[in-house]
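Thread: iron/sulfur cluster complex, take 2
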Amino acid sequence: MGTISEKIFSRAAGTDAAANDFVSADVDYAMAHDGTSVLAVKSFREMGTEKVWDSEKIVIPFDHLIPASTDVAAGLQKDIREWVKEQKISHFYEGGEGICHQVLPEQGFALPGKLIVGADSHSCTYGAFGAFGTGVGATDMAEIFATGKLWFKVPETIKMTVDGTLNDGVYAKDLTLYLIGKTGIAGATYKAVEFYGDAIADLSVSGRMTLCNMAIEMGAKAGIVPPDEKTFAYLKNRSQADFEPVYADSDASYCRDVSYHADDIEPQIACPHEVDNVVPVGKAAGTHIDQAFLGTCTNGRLEDLEIAAGILKGKKVTVRTIAAPASRTILLEAVQSGIYETLVKAGVSFITPGCGPCLGAHQGIIAEGENCISTANRNFKGRMGKGGFIYLASPASVAAAALKGEIVDPREYL
Ligand SMILES: CC(C)[C@H](C(=O)O)[C@@H](O)C(=O)O
Ligand code: SF4
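Output below.
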């Protein structure tokens, strides 16, 4: 009778949890990064709790402002490192290891059936592995640090099915943007979304991460792909704990049941300043581009860099182009496979694995009136620099635009 979310909350709360119930649930893993751990640790200290609930279950990756960009950031990071030592947090990842939402799966924390809470809105990424991953604010995280528990309203679930096969030149990012365009930025507010259909099953693990990563951009509390053989193959030799895959019952009750067909999907682009301002990329063709950015927790994986390298091989970008691999592991794989060399020769500048310019803090801020085409997940006004314009697209579309200096249908370059 249950959806995936109802079943995960039933286990985590030790009660029969149904949609709209309020439960107090045991969190399996808790994550805060260099940005949000600052306030979480401050609140934790103010609560007067001496010791975190479980130093093995807290994961702290430094990714947002690394290497430290200002003396203030350096000081805050120093303080968190000291707290990590004092609390004997076992899973601390220094800047350069990668973006939190990449590091957790790589290190085996994103496991089917788990309740994983992160002090970052894109913690829904872990749904790619059949987990209930969700983001909370830093003060809620302090509560988890202290008790291992947090209250939740069990979300209702939307069943979203995408049948058929994606067309050539259409990638997980295009599918994701298409679904957000159809649903709207608030169309799934506080719902969980379960993804089904051949087009979803055909996605690689990396593609499923792209999809679930952006569930929050339709307002969703979580986006979940039921685990399958691809999931288990990825998790092999990574997982640190036992896990129990969770699937919805055939008579589970959904608040909405929507279906789409992969054939209908062309390469997509989200135009400024809303993520659901989505059009087929051809409709924005000819828009001048000042900067191109390949990376982020949405599209900074090897597969993404490989797609870009396929388009840029033997050519030269005509606009400044930045690449930030989502993790050190991915950077190394890019080096070993020759993708790194292809991109560097094409004129791409690599920066430290991490968030980089995604949130406009450093390493690639755009000027007023400038247009950036990016593989990220948000194009909010001013996010990458005051007065700047952000277009969100697939790695193929970003690479093609970097060559042409304007937005172009990437299928012209395949
Ligand atoms: C800094 C952090 C709180 C923020 C988030 O929660 O998403 C960031 O990662 C982002 O993408 O805007
Ligand atoms: S890469 Fe961007 S979206 Fe992802 S966690 Fe970092 S700042 Fe947030």
